[in-house]
Amino acid sequence: MATLEVDDGTIYYETSGDGQPLVFVHGGWMDGSAWEPQVDHFDDEYQVVTLDVRGHGNTGATDVDQYSIELFTDDLEALFSHLEIERPICCGISLGSMVVQEYLDRHPDRAAGAILGGAVRSMPPVELPTGLKPFWSPLPAVSASLSMTGSAGTFQSMLQSIQATTGQRWLSVDSAVRAEAIDSASDIPSAEYRKIFDALYRYDPPELTGVETPTLVVHGEQEVPLVKRQGAQIAAAVATGARVELADSGHLVNQDRPRAFNATAADFLDTHSAA
């Protein structure tokens, strides 16, 4: 694993393979290892890059009081500069999909392609007027939960609440994948968990109407309907967008159906000549 020094911390990343850069950004309270099925599949043909976003994995805590999707995207751009990557294919899931959307909004035609798994524009997946967010904010409840049950308990409570509301196995249909995600969340200190949640909640999604990068949105069948709706909005907004839904999978679609996800991604890249 390699490191990138930034002003207020150290970003950990890994690279493997040679060819067109294919960069993966993980979801909230996870780390770069969540993309292992994709790394193993694509590093024969691509230069595959994974990173641990601030607050996650080996990167861990950094010396800033507040995280944001914009800050995570700044780090991604710094990594591209460090690795001299000029024409990446960007792939993100959940929180990572927000980071990729922010990058596309900043650079509408720089990326060779974009793949958004579990793509979501906002959290919650109903876009509230910016002025109302502070009054509706779940952050006090999250802070209270963290103080009582820690990161693992707070993460599990969130999953139970979503399943009770939607009646769906939202995060994953695979008990092993779900358990691994909970274990990953349990490794994150409570203060970092709150900063990550705050970054997700405060993000104001871009419209993406000027984006020329070919973009694929991939959702699992068990994804929350409101999230699917936001994914459809993304695919419709960009100049060249498509959306695919994979059966027998949830939010972590790349881990629930790794072969199907990899095949769908490869077909998309071949069709749009991104490589």
From TrEMBL:
AB hydrolase-1 domain: from which residue to which, for each copy?
Answer: 22-263
What GO terms are given for molecular function? Answer: hydrolase activity
State the source organism's domain of life.
Archaea
Gene3D superfamilies reported for this sequence:
alpha/beta hydrolase
Pfam family of this protein, just one? Abhydrolase_6
Entry keywords, A to Z = Hydrolase
Q: Does the keyword Hydrolase apply?
A: yes
Q: What is this protein called?
A: Alpha/beta fold hydrolase
Q: What is the lineage of its organism?
A: Archaea, Methanobacteriati, Methanobacteriota, Stenosarchaea group, Halobacteria
